[in-house]
């Protein structure tokens, strides 16, 4: 269930993140495809609470620093990310590729909780909060492996497995076979199944009894020759996090 007002506030925040400039009320309403009166009500509420200000008469509105301050406080006290971040940073620095941490949002969907971008100009880019279909995602495959086999078979049988590229596995049987061979080779993979030139490697872990996964993703030409090396780093990072007190 989507609560419309809450959804609209999030849309406003995301709009400014995209546009990166002050916006007039009419422009906001147009971009959000909502009535000007409704948009004004939301903006006035955010302004009264200190999250929005008018940059000048008829010059538009822009978020204040309060939004960032609140986000920083929230992020600094996330108990899970606080535990995993040092290992994620070490893995990113060792692999020199983008490192992602996430879990199931629902059994069909992975949500990225943290993304550490690679120190390369050509890299896989994503943002925390983005979601991906589990069946064609390395992290999703790692998380699917944590489900009971019968529950996983029922889930895959009920999931539309649309091809995202020519390489996407689109039958439950093919995905099950991929999951079966992954533990022995030491990584769950996405070799061009969601984006043609992208490779993703992932491994599952548990924190407080909850299933999570870490993925390393990057351009195929760069990451594929280093799969075994990077996979070993990945497994070590997961083990270190699980053993952390």
UniProtKB/TrEMBL annotation:
Residue span(s) of domain HTH iclR-type: 3-66
UniProt cross-references to SUPFAM superfamilies, sorted A to Z: GAF domain-like, Winged helix' DNA-binding domain
Keywords: DNA-binding, Transcription, Transcription regulation
Gene3D superfamilies for this protein: 3.30.450.40, Winged helix-like DNA-binding domain superfamily/Winged helix DNA-binding domain (1.10.10.10)
Keyword DNA-binding: yes
Chain ranges of the IclR-ED domain: 66-245
SMART domains assigned to the protein according to its UniProt record, in alphabetical order: HTH_ICLR
InterPro entries: GAF-like_dom_sf, HTH_MetabolicPath_Reg, Tscrpt_reg_IclR_C, Tscrpt_reg_IclR_N, WH-like_DNA-bd_sf, WH_DNA-bd_sf
UniProt entry tagged with the keyword Glycosyltransferase: no
Protein name from the UniProt record: IclR family transcriptional regulator
Organism, as annotated: Variovorax beijingensis
């Amino acid at each position: 269930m989507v609560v419309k007002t809450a959804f609209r506030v999030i849309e406003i925040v995301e709009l400014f993140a995209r546009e990166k400039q002050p916006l007039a009320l009419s422009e906001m309403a147009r971009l959000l495809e909502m009535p000007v009166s409704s948009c004004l009500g939301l903006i006035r509420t955010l302004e009264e609470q200190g999250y929005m200000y008018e940059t000048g008469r008829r010059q538009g509105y822009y978020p204040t620093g309060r939004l960032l301050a609140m986000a920083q406080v929230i992020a600094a006290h996330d108990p899970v990310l606080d535990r995993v971040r040092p290992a994620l940073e070490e893995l990113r620095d060792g692999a020199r590729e983008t490192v992602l941490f996430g879990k199931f949002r629902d059994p069909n969907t992975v949500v990225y909780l943290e993304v550490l971008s690679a120190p390369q100009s050509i890299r896989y880019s994503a943002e925390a909060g983005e979601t991906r279909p589990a069946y064609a995602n390395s992290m999703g495959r790692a998380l699917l492996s944590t489900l009971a086999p019968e529950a996983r078979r029922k889930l895959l049988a009920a999931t539309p497995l649309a091809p995202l590229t020519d390489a996407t596995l689109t039958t439950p049987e093919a995905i099950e076979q991929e999951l079966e061979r992954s533990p022995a080779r030491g990584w769950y993979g996405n070799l061009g199944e969601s984006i043609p030139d992208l490779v993703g490697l992932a491994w599952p872990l548990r924190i407080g009894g909850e299933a999570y996964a870490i993925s390393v993703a990057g351009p195929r030409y760069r990451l594929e020759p280093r799969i075994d090396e990077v996979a070993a780093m990945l497994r070590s990072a997961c083990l270190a996090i699980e053993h952390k007190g």
